[in-house]
Amino acid sequence: MNAGVRVLVVDDHAVVRRGVIAYLEVLDDVEVAGEAGDGAAALEVLADLAAHGGLPDVALMDLQMPGMDGVAAIAQIRRRFPSVQVVVLTSFGEIERVHAALQEGAAGYLLKDAGPAEIAAALEAAARGEVFLDAAVARRLAQEIRAPRSGLRALTAREREILRLVAEGRSNKEIAAELVISERTARTHVSNLLGKLGLASRTQAALLAIREGLVPPGMS
Q1: Distance in angstroms (rounded) separating the CA atoms of residues 17 and 64
Q2: Residue among 136, 131, 129 nearest 111 (CA)
Q3: Which of 36, 96, 104, 123 is buried most, with the most CB atoms less than 10 Å from its CB?
Q4: Domain HTH luxR-type spans what residues (predicted)?
Q5: pTM recorded for the entire structure
Q6: Which of 38, 154, 44, 49 is nearest to 95 (CA)?
């Protein structure tokens, strides 16, 4: 690897986190800059490192975490610390999660059965500003391009969640507060899901969500 790739490890399971750190510490030219147990803690660690002039090159992050999850954390990291790339290391390879992570700016997506060479390659690629995907994940994305989804299946998990909140009558500001994202990001998600569904208004989106059973009648 190129010299000096500094990594922040983020995982809510302490045993897993320590195992990842122990593995990274034996890789050539990799320095573990810190660790955190969830997205909010990762932002605090990054703020502290930034104050002391030592931001990492890459955050190696799980997706499923309590509080602020990985997808929300990716968005916040890319907004507040744009020089820090994020590589996802997770047990979940569902295409919706991949879409959500990449949409928020992830530079890599690995499954936790990834081998040493794959993790090293992903960190190196992210440090260069490139994107590295697990081979199985890349195949799923390629299959989707060949057979694109339509209707609700075209939405990412995050967009489905936002559609439900829209159907409940939440404003962009309320959606942002609920999901710990910026109001601008919430507005972008709403615009994207309306475009994917071919709808012109939030009212149409709410009616579709009710019809598809995302929310019970009377919630909007």
Answers
A1: 13
A2: 136
A3: 123
A4: 148-213
A5: 0.67
A6: 154
